[in-house]
Write a structure and sequence with these properties.
heterodimer; A: about 150 residues; alpha+beta; 5-stranded antiparallel β-sheet; about 35% helix; globular; B: about 450 residues; Alpha-Beta Plaits; 3-methyladenine DNA Glycosylase II, Chain A, domain 3; 3-stranded parallel β-sheet; 16 helices; about 40% helix; elongated; binds adenosine-5'-triphosphate; binds iron/sulfur cluster; binds magnesium ion; HATPase_C_sf (chain A); Anti-sigma B factor RsbT (chain A); HATPase_dom (chain A); 4Fe4S_Ferredoxin_RnfB (chain B); Fe_hydrogenase (chain B)
């Protein structure tokens, strides 16, 4: 951490709902131990959880890379899944391609991406059909860091 | 700020230093040091989990002895409805209340009755729909403390109404002063408690106001007295004033079923409560207006200071609930009580897990914590006295433990020391070198 950044990476296993969310909950724990503002911890936990779950459900798992410094949490979730053909459509509330089997388990409300948008201070998604998706989430830990758009 | 008070403590003589309690504690508040469990005070939420799980009964709660009532001229008992579930031989609630009064009290006032007032007030809040959803019951002080240390984002969801116990004490004092012209300071009101958490809420109220209750006597301490009085009753007094709604509060789900909404969720058992609070914090719980969360499995009937098995108690109390239903008595929702039952103080976040006040130092500590944790075996065996390898790593960075507290690390270290010794042993100075080959060498040398 000589450069003032904590880096961690996690493997997100495919199709395993029982341990889905482990990466985001350990990031949550880290932020709490760092004494981050509870509201920021919540924003991070929810947005990362949604991205993590999407990788599990829609993309056969992937990896999460997390960087924490004094001012922000940066999360990159990468998968080599099918990609998202129409990102704008996918971002809409209620849009989902989750099959019934998954909807029966209480997932697939089509709220994951909208929630990420809502809770992340910055959200960048790069996706390519047949290659995979990269979701980058930034949550600022100090208020004055928030960028003006 | 006043020092942090909590009422669960250790009986040193009985503690064997096993690892049962450290594993169960929901806030990782217990460590074993020198063969004795130690509670990290600021972390304890008084859930009573360690009292229940200790095979040697070494965990207890600080409650007041029955003799405390002698300090007051006029003595009033306010029993938690849970008491009724403990007495299967009692014919009616009035029998129980009469027997309780015979234990040295001048009066008894049912907490169940005050519970109904809270129910009515909660209904109003729910109808107005002006609250942060879901509203979380504040009936269980252990849960409120849990929220304070682990779920700061949910502090605003807590139902900020005084507890039935406080309201009962206030009404009892006011009525007695009014009707009997006794000064408030001469009246001692004693809660007959099923748990440590309630004791704490009297001695150190959550909203930092002074409690109206003057002492807490545990159900288990007064149980035998009540039982023996039950057999000596001449005339049963009509002391019950609560309807079934109030009595039912002793059960998990009792508080919420009375609210007239289906949008509630009742959860009991501290570890289940944590799971639900996590769902709420992460906004995964939808369409719920009210959450009743009780630290004890089965609700207060499963309280750590009760005597009857929780399932038996459920059956017993059902009898009294049915009895109350038959008499049809119910607190009218429009009844006039001119008590301010809203919390006045503030409940604050207590970040007990934070590694350091300074973010940069906390970062360094967290990094070290991860490094140490990676080097630990990950067995969570508890032999070091910490509940898990990770918490040992945390204790080490906080300066409260050493890496060699881990028996595996210790063995590694002993082995490497042994190897070093062997190596040193092999490097004997020539004058002391007695091994054969060198002897031969020297002989040869001597031959020359
Ligand atoms: N990593 C991904 N790889 C491939 N497709 C994805 C990925 N993430 C999202 N999608 C697509 O975008 C849609 C919308 O995603 P979103 O997270 O908003 O909803 P959902 O995952 O279907 O349901 P919910 O998140 O509410 O459980 C998904 O149904 C899926 O088709
Ligand atoms: S009462 Fe609960 S929080 Fe306190 S030490 Fe025991 S188990 Fe831990
Ligand atoms: S559930 Fe009831 S008995 Fe148990 S700790 Fe909470 S208030 Fe006390
Ligand atoms: Mg999703």
């Amino acid at each position: 951490m000589s450069d003032g950044i904590i880096r961690k990476s996690f493997v997100i296993p495919a199709n395993d709902f029982t341990i889905a969310g482990e990466a985001s909950s350990s990031v949550k724990k880290m932020l709490i131990q760092l004494g981050a503002d509870p509201q920021k911890v919540k924003k991070t936990a929810i947005s990362m959880y949604e991205a993590e779950l999407n990788a599990v459900i829609h993309a056969n798992g992937g990896v999460a890379e997390v960087e924490i410094d004094r001012h922000k949490v940066f999360i990159r979730i990468k998968d080599e899944g099918p990609g998202i053909p129409d990102l704008e459509l996918a971002m809409q509330e209620g849009y989902t391609t989750a099959p019934d089997s998954i909807r029966e388990m209480g997932f697939g409300a089509g709220m994951g991406l909208p929630n990420m948008k809502r809770y992340a201070d910055k959200l960048e998604i790069t996706t390519e059909v047949g290659k995979g998706t990269v979701v980058e989430i930034t949550v600022f830990l100090t208020d004055n860091e928030k960028e003006d758009h | 700020m006043s020092p942090y008070f909590h009422s669960v403590t250790l009986d040193e003589a009985k503690c064997k230093g096993c690892t049962n309690c450290i594993k169960r504690c929901p806030t990782e508040a217990i460590r074993v040091r020198k063969s004795k469990a130690r509670i990290i005070n600021e972390r304890c939420i008084d859930c009573g989990e360690c009292i229940r799980v200790c095979p040697y009964h070494a965990k207890k709660a600080i409650t007041d002895p029955v003799s405390i009532i002698d300090d007051y001229k006029y003595k009033v008992a306010i029993p938690a409805p849970t008491l009724y579930g403990q007495l299967k031989s009692a014919q009616s609630r009035d029998h129980i209340l009469t027997a309780l009064k015979m234990c040295g009290f001048d009066d008894v006032f049912e907490v169940a009755r005050a519970a109904e007032i809270i129910t009515n007030e909660t209904k109003k809040i729910l109808e107005e729909q002006k609250f942060q959803k879901p509203l979380i019951s504040s009936a269980c002080p252990a849960v409120v403390r849990l929220i304070q240390v682990r779920f700061p984002n949910l502090i605003d969801n807590i139902l900020k109404l005084k507890s039935p116990m406080e309201v009962a004490a206030k009404i009892a004092k006011d009525e007695i002063t009014r009707d009997k012209k006794i000064r408030q300071e001469d009246i001692g009101v004693f809660f007959i408690t099923p748990c440590a958490a309630k004791v704490t809420s009297i001695k150190a109220p959550l909203d930092k106001e002074k409690s109206f209750v003057d002492g807490a006597i545990s159900i288990s301490d007064i149980y035998l007295k009540v039982l023996s009085s039950l057999g000596k009753i001449d005339k049963v007094e009509k002391l019950s004033r609560a309807g079934f709604v109030g009595v039912r509060w002793a059960n998990s789900g009792g508080e919420s079923t009375a609210l007239g909404t289906d949008k509630f969720l009742a959860v009991d058992g501290i570890h289940n409560v944590i799971a639900i609070l996590e769902e709420i914090e992460d906004e995964k719980l939808e369409d719920i207006d009210f959450v009743e969360a009780l630290a004890c499995q089965g609700g207060c009937l499963g309280g750590p200071l009760t005597v009857e098995n929780m399932y038996v108690a459920k059956t017993v109390i059902k009898k009294f609930i049915d009895e109350a239903k038959e008499t049809g008595f119910e607190t009218a929702s429009n009844e006039n009580y001119h008590y301010d039952i809203a919390w006045t103080g503030k409940v604050e976040y207590r970040p007990i897990m934070k590694l350091d006040k300074d973010f940069d130092i906390a970062m360094k500590k967290l990094e070290t914590l991860h490094l140490i944790n990676n080097g630990l075996p990950g067995l969570d065996c508890g032999a070091c006295g910490a509940p898990s390898c990770r918490s040992l790593a945390e204790d080490i960075v906080r300066g409260n433990a050493n890496e060699t507290d881990c028996i595996f690390k210790l063995r590694e270290k002993v082995r490497s020391l042994a190897i070093q010794m062997m190596e040193l042993e092999a490097k004997m100075p020539p004058v002391l070198d007695k091994d054969e080959t060198s002897e031969i060498k020297s002989k040869k040398r001597g031959d020359i």
